[in-house]
């Protein structure tokens, strides 16, 4: 189980008078994610989703609070935790001069996948993400959707227990998006834990067991999609979100 407790993260920004100001990108955020569960982190751009996921992935350190994976924390067990997580950010760069196969083989070496299992693992991942027709193509020649599938594929080679996915389908066509969403559903069935950040509320209704809505660094609502819609007397999560922030539709 992943336990995030009372997380806070401060940054410095400059106001219109070019004066430094502190602001909380994440302000006292807590939640849990169990095995076999997809937890959605929902909110507009600038809500604090990416900052939160970077802390969960061990890239940023929280100023306050704790992050715990199955009884382990980053302070004492960073290597052990990172062996069991996969993190996909919205701006991850990959080696475009390599083929999909070459990149996956390199990632297998990095994660110390059993050499006897590398070929079968790459074939398995290629089938899962429907990459057989471009497995040996250079990444620089792939479409946006194909490249994103490769990005996800590199996260799979070590068979992680936890997936931390930040805007995994952003900017993708409907076919590539559906392949990724179907993959998430299958990994859930295997008992994997998926933390899924998105501003696509419709996606969250489709795949998330529980949802944490964030706005301006704070959690404004927690629950299943069905419960949130019931509590806000709305028919979809998009309308529920705007109801919770008082109808304000600008992203500040």
The chain-level mean pLDDT equals: 90
Strand residue content? 25-35%
Oligomer: single chain
Number of H/I helices: 9
What is the molecular shape? Answer: globular
How would you portray this structure in words?
- By secondary structure, the protein is of the alpha/beta class.
- Helix 8 packs across helix 9.
- The longest helix is centred in the last third of the chain and has 16 residues.
- The radius of gyration is 19 Å and the shape is globular.
- The two termini are 33 Å apart.
Highlighted features:
27% strand; 252 residues; 9 helices; 4-stranded antiparallel beta sheet; single chain; 35% helix; alpha/beta; 6-stranded mixed beta sheet
Topology:
Layout: E1 2-14, E2 20-33, E3 38-42, H1 49-56, E4 64-69, E5 72-73, H2 74-82, E6 85-88, H3 100-110, H4 118-128, H5 144-154, E7 162-166, H6 174-189, E8 193-198, H7 201-207, E9 210-215, E10 218-223, H8 225-232, H9 237-244
Parallel strand pairs: 3-8, 3-9, 6-7, 7-8
Antiparallel strand pairs: 1-2, 1-4, 4-5, 9-10
Helix pairs in contact: 5-6, 8-9
């Amino acid at each position: 189980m992943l336990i995030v407790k009372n997380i806070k993260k401060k940054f410095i920004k400059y106001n219109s008078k070019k004066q430094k100001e502190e602001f909380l990108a994440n302000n006292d955020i807590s939640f849990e994610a169990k095995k076999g569960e997809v937890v959605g982190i929902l909110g507009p751009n600038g809500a604090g989703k990416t900052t939160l996921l970077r802390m969960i992935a061990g890239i940023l350190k929280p100023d306050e609070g704790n992050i715990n994976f199955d009884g382990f924390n980053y302070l004492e067990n960073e290597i052990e935790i990172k062996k069991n997580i996969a993190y996909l950010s919205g701006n991850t760069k990959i080696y475009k001069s390599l083929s999909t196969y070459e990149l996956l083989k390199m990632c297998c070496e990095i994660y110390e996948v059993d050499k006897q299992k590398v070929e079968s693992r790459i074939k398995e991942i290629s089938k899962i993400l429907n990459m057989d027709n471009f497995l040996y193509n250079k990444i620089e020649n792939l479409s946006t959707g194909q490249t994103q599938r490769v990005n996800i594929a590199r996260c799979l080679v070590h068979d992680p227990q936890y997936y931390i996915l930040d805007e995994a389908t952003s900017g993708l066509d409907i076919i590539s998006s559906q392949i990724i969403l179907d993959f998430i559903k299958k990994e859930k069935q295997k008992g994997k834990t998926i933390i899924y950040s998105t501003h696509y509320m419709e996606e969250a209704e489709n795949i998330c067991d529980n949802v944490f809505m964030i706005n301006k660094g704070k959690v404004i609502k927690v629950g299943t999609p069905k419960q949130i819609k019931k509590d806000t007397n709305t028919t979809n999560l998009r309308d529920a979100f705007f109801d919770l922030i008082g109808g304000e539709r600008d992203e500040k």
